[in-house]
Amino acid sequence: MAESKNILYAGLVISQLLTLAAYVVVTAGAAMLQKRANNLPLWKGLTDEQLKATIPVYNDVFQSTGYIIPYPQNPEYQFQYQWWIIQFELFVFLLTATCTVFPAIIPRLRPVALTFIAAALVLVMDNVNAVFFLLRLDLAKTVYGATAIQVAQAGLIMVGCANFLTIIFLGSYPAEQTTSYTSHKSDQV
């Protein structure tokens, strides 16, 4: 039992280190995309007719992902959903890292941590899909830069893999033995 617990704990430590590295990569990729969005010269110098023709194409490209909402006149808001997910993932990482640093609290926090990490995994997988869509579009690569999209995608894939590993190792961790309510009640009589 102690041997398997040590193996599970080692796996949890490795998954948390991978999560930290993944978090750094995905944050760097999102920052690269955000920097480009903040300085996007897409609409500067266009006539009203050109603007009328360009905005629907822009909207079609980004609305098709379902997770990257187009803001044609305010592209700095383009990646707000991605940033929200990155911050949510940070919260989940801090929760699971706390369990890793203080393993005595794993039995108590494990159900909460697993619930949040499962929710985060769904959001991350949705974003992996959305960013794959951007990687297949030459227009998106031209607008935001292929490298920025690739770095964000690599980070998202790493986060997804790290979340899978954390779920496996934290979920397999032995549960604390609890005493039932009835045995406590009989002790008091």
Structure, explained:
There is one protein chain. With 189 residues, the chain is mainly alpha-helical. The protein has one domain. It is 78% helix and 0% strand. The protein has seven helices and no strands. It has helices at 2-38, 48-63, 80-101, 106-135, 138-144, 146-172, 181-188. The mean pLDDT is 86. Keywords: Membrane, Transmembrane, Transmembrane helix. The chain crosses the membrane at residues 7-33, 81-105, 112-135, 147-170.
Task: Write a short abstract of this structure.
This protein has helices at residues 2-38, 48-63, 80-101, 106-135, 138-144, 146-172, 181-188. It is an all-alpha fold.
Strand content: under 5%
Low-pLDDT runs: none
Number of strands: 0
- Helical segment count: 7
State the helicity in percent bands. Answer: over 70%
Q: What does the radius of gyration come to?
A: 22 Å
SSE arrangement, N to C: HHHHHHH
Mean of all residue-level pLDDT scores: 86
Largest sheet: none
The span between the termini is: 35 Å
- The structural class is mainly alpha
- Net shape: elongated
